[in-house]
Amino acid sequence: MIASGDFNQRIDFMGDFSASFNIMIQRLKQAEENEKKYMSELKKREAQLKESEQKYRLIAKNMDDMIVLMDDDMKVIYCSPSIERLLGYTAADFIELSLTEQVLPFIGIQLGKMAGQDGGDPSVLMEVEQQRKDGEIIWLESLMSTAKDEEGQNMGFLCVIRNITQRKLVENDLQQSYERRLKNDFFTKLLNGDIEIESDVYNHAYRLGIQLPNHFSLYFLSIDDSGSFLSEVNALEQRQKNMDVLIDQLTNQEATIAWEVPEGIGILSAMCDSSYHKTKEIQLAESYIDLVALSFPGLQAHIGIADYFDSLTHVALRFKHAQSAVRIGKRIWNQHKVYHFDDCGAYQVLIPFADSDESEVFVKKTLGPLLEYDQRNQTELVDTLEKILSGLSLKEVGKQTFFHYKTIQNRKQRIENILNVSLDSAEVRMMLRTAIHLLKIVQVKADL
Fold this sequence. Notes:
Layout: H1 16-62, E1 66-70, E2 76-79, H2 83-87, H3 91-96, H4 99-103, H5 106-115, E3 123-131, E4 137-148, E5 154-163, H6 165-192, H7 198-207, E6 216-224, H8 235-251, E7 256-261, E8 264-270, H9 277-295, E9 300-305, H10 315-332, E10 338-340, H11 347-354, H12 357-377, H13 381-389, H14 394-401, H15 405-419, H16 426-447
Helix pairs in contact: 10-16, 11-16, 12-16, 13-15, 14-15
């Protein structure tokens, strides 16, 4: 019965043997109970360990960070499964590869730095560019430290690696944004005349990393905010992003500096001191327009080219001329996208006056009755007047407008009656021609 596990048996008829026997049986019973208790505790611990192991495996499998454990000889003891998402290798393949030579050569550099540290618990943090198995270049942050067991003894090295590509992109965007702002502030001060001494301009530009050439062309790129340049959602934010992209692309062109200005982009381009600079400027301006069309199809952009001066002291005036070229060109030569200030003729002189309130008063006083007559009767006498004032004969005006010259003669008399002037007077013709020029510029101003 004892052999079958029944430890409740006792004997009491054999003297001292009975006492010893009974004590042995009690101890056997106690041993059995202890064993059962131990086995129960062991099973409980095994279940906890299994549960803990499953949790660690779940964490290791799903975590983004890569964990590498190495012994003192740089042999990989453990590599987390996250390596496949991070670098494209499986953990098994990674362990078989030469760690420092083929996959993560920067770890050798980290070990060298750790060896050079004195005292304490050395650790090294590094940010490096790394090529994945598929060839993609990413940024990694790696923290290497010594690995210790439960008793605090060194057992090798522990390296935790994570992908920080997105963070680096954000940092790069912030740095570029900061540099753009400094550049915009510099050119704003320059165009406002806040930096007057030429040597100060070059010194200020040098401190900002802006290489200002001695001879340069100046452009104003007018941006029409429509089409693909703006999105309906977060329009202002999207516009700024698109503007930044366009400025960066322009700046990446050879010998070109671009910055943001109201209603568009300012562009400065190095040029040779040559008598053919105008032809080259127009060709370069056309290439800028092509770049805009390629980056943002459907975006309406026009570019004005300033006249040339060989000194920075005239840069503010030159830029105004570039802006004026766009104002004039969009109205006078609307079939083109590139306008040079040198081609604006008499409009160059009229531009300053056109910005004043007196210009509209002058146009209304000089051409008002004729403008009202055309609007009321759906006629085109102002156009006829412009052709007559251009110096063409009445017959030539008739050929251009497909009317008989007598019809043009009648129109001339009607114009004279409406305006109460004589078109045979040189002074009157000059006044009317000036008013027509101003009318076009004022309309451009209203359109912008």
